[in-house]
Each structure stands twice: as structure tokens, then as C-alpha cells.
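agent> fetching stored inputs for the magnesium ion docking request
agent> found them:
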Amino acid sequence: MATINPFLLKGYAGEQYFCDRVEESQKIINSIHNQQDLTLYAYRRLGKSALIRHVATQMEADYHFVYADIWGTSSLSEFVKELTNSIIKSNVFSQRGLGKKLQDFVKSLGTSFTIGHDGMPSIDLTYNDKSKAFKNLDEIIGFLNAQTKPVVLAIDEFQEIRKYDSEDTPIEAVLRKLTQQSNNIRFIYSGSEFHLLNDIFNSYNRPFYQSTRMIEIGPIEHDIYKEFILYHFQKGNKSIDNSLVDEILKFTYRHTFYVQSIFNHLYSLSKQPKNWTEFEKIYHPFILEKGVFYSELPNRVTPQQFVITKAFAKAGKVSSPTGNAFLDLAGLTNASSMKRAVQALLDKQILIKEGEDYRLYDVFLEHYLNFNKH
Ligand SMILES: Nc1ncnc2c1ncn2[C@@H]1O[C@H](COP(=O)(O)OP(=O)(O)OP(=O)(O)O)[C@@H](O)[C@H]1O
Ligand SMILES: [Mg+2]
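agent> prediction call returned; pasting C-alpha cells
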């Protein structure tokens, strides 16, 4: 088999390419063994989805594991379709492939298969009638609940349900009721928008109020990530400078996707940089190439917000944006207009609050703005 670049840029390819998350995995597995439903929160690109898949591989012997990513769904109808297709792809059917169980299930939903370009079956469902969609949802959950093995149903990007049309809003109440009837299913809800998840799971007057155990995922620890990186370079007979690894981990705040991207790039080179100066020479064109994604930023923010965004890029982590030092850096005199701008940039997901500090959400944007001063 051809050797692959060990620093994955998407998905999950087995534990050898997956760094740490030992405690988090244990906590999740332990909760599931104890019939607790879970909510996993992590900001974007930190490794939620990969973690769920990592946990799935460790549980597949004892559980049917269904992973549904509902990112981009905008209605109950799409939600039901996504859920159904996730079941079709899962190990619920693995033993007998496209067996009778699956055929009967799909027939009961009143639809039929289409075979995709990848040779995988899927179904297409659209509902003109909401009550039909709710009825099918009931059937799908009922179907999972009736399996002989217990089922884990992971719904990734769960906060999307809060963005559905207003006619779909009973979805929270309906889902909550279904989950309460389903003793054979453990639910993992995960998502990246804290205020929405918090609203779903921690509002007194909402159906899911305190119904799950909340687990927050943070960045991987420096020393553990470093060891993983050094191990893979060594294994690939590539040498990389120890302190350069330290510096890159700091430079990316250990935000998983950005760490992976940089080391994937360095690994792909025939000659690795020996120090920071050599690294910058390589990194500069790499980051400028990302410019296509960032050139439209001025259209998404006001001119003042853009100036403030650039000040954040320069400062890196900022603990007190309304303090004098940062106001000076941004060229502002008014703390309350800074406060408003920071809130707007948080809402637009351009800024992120990590612990007590603020920084740009997108690490490459920070680097891009710094390299591309004008
Ligand atoms: N523990 C890990 N070790 C190594 N690579 C990881 C780890 N966790 C995630 N990754 C990699 O980091 C990248 C981002 O991970 P993932 O897609 O799981 O994040 P996410 O939080 O689900 O992101 P999004 O918000 O975009 O859905 C992927 O390339 C993934 O392969
Ligand atoms: Mg994800």
C-alpha cells in the first residue's frame, strides 16, 4: 500500500493518524455505557467529527453506530432524509449489505433507493406534508430502537435545527419525546455554535433542558501533539527541528485543522525547513495561496470592523480588547464602540473567545493579514 501523508486534512483514517483524545474518548464511551445522552461542544475545526468517528471505531463491536452530519440542512424534510441516509450507510446493515431489513425499512418510508456515483445506495425524500415527515421521523427512531444491539445515534452540527423554518420548530419537542421513548438508543449531539447549543440544552423552558451530559472539547495538549508530530516525521524518515515544532504549535494556538494543514504541507516537501526563517520562506507562499478565501472579507464587515480585525491579527491573543493598549493598536479612542465591534465580530464568527482571550477564529486569516500588510 502506498504510504499516505499522516497529517490528515479531512476525516478519519484510523487511530494511527489520530492524536490523543484519550480522556475525551473515555468520557464519551463511559457515558454511553451508562445510558447517558451527551452533548459535545467544540468550536469549528477542532476535531469534533473526527473524535466521534474515533469513538465509533472503539464501540462498533457492541453498538450499532449511526453518524449523521446535518450541516447545511435547512428543514425537517432534509433532516429526516439525512438521518435515513446515515442509517443506510451505518453498520446497522453491514452484515447483510442491502438486505431485507433495509429494503423493508425503506419501503416503510414510502420511498426507494437510488445508487450514487460511488456505488452507494441512498434515498431521496421530500415531503410536501410536515405531518408525514414527523411520522417518518417517528418510524426511523422506532426502527433504530427495535434493533437487537443497542444503537448510538450521533447527530453532528445539531444546532442547525434551530435554523429551520418556523413551521418545523416543534422538531425539538418531537425529538425530545422520541428520545425519551427510546431506551435502546444513546444520543450524541454535537455542534460548534455554543450559544445555540446552550439555548437548546440549558434553557429552562426548552424540551431538551438539562437532558444530556455536556462535554466541551479543547485543543490537544502541546507536548502530546508535539510527540505525535515528531513521531510521524521520524517514521517517514524526515527530520524536523524540535523547537520549530514548538513554535508552529504556538503560532496556530494548537487549533487542530491549522496544525494538521501546516504539518501536512511540511511533510509533503522533500526538504524540511531547519529554523523559523526557513519556515517563513515556505509558509509565505502557502498562506498567500489562501488569499482567495479572504479577499472578500472587507465585504462582510464594516470598515471599522476591518481595521479592528487587522489589529487582532497583529496582536494575536487579546485578553482585554477595551483596554488602552489594544485601543491604541486599533487606533480607537472609544471603548464602547470597540465593545460593539467585538460583539459583531464574534457574531460573524470572525473572532472567537478562547478561555479568557479573544483571537481570530481562522488562524490562516490571522497569518494572511499579517503577511499581506497594506
Ligand atoms: N485528534 C486528532 N489527531 C489528528 N488529526 C485530527 C484530530 N482531530 C481532528 N483531526 C483532523 O483535524 C481536522 C479537523 O477535524 P474535524 O473535521 O473532525 O473537526 P470539526 O471540529 O468537526 O470541524 P468542523 O467544525 O469543520 O466540522 C481534520 O483534518 C481531522 O482529520
Ligand atoms: Mg465536523
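agent> quick read of the result: Strands lie at 38-41, 64-69, 113-115, 121-123, 151-156, 185-191, 213-216, 351-354, 357-360.
agent> awaiting further instructions
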